[in-house]
Amino acid sequence: MNNKTVLETANAAISRGDHETFLTFCTDSVQWIFVGDRVLSGKEEVRRYLSETYKIPPKFDVDLMIAERDYVTAVGKISLSENDKWTEYDYCDVWKFENGLMAELKAFVVEK
């Protein structure tokens, strides 16, 4: 499976609310960097974030995905539900892969 397909498959798991399957596509030392916000280090921190933030699965609308070497960049919109209210964000995610697994995310996210 190429890196782009890995990301698409992992995101499909998130859309179904299947956090554990998503995490199988991540390295144990995965790091998520939300630029200007926070950094999550390791699967446990990511698992906790997913369980808190994605109680209701998010809605993705990917406009563009670019794969080059060990990186996949995804640009689009994500909608998150909190307290029965959906909020839409524009995002640009830059994923770094190691040995076919997602190792690092640098996420630029802006509320619409």
TrEMBL record:
Look up keyword NAD and say if it applies. Answer: no
Its domain of life? Answer: Bacteria
Q: Where is the SnoaL-like domain?
A: 11-104
Listed InterPro entries: NTF2-like_dom_sf (IPR032710), SnoaL-like (IPR037401)
One molecular function GO term is:
isomerase activity
Q: Does the keyword Isomerase apply?
A: yes
What keywords are annotated for this sequence in UniProt? Isomerase
Name by which UniProt lists this protein: Ketosteroid isomerase-related protein
Question: What is the native source organism of this protein?
Answer: Chryseobacterium wanjuense
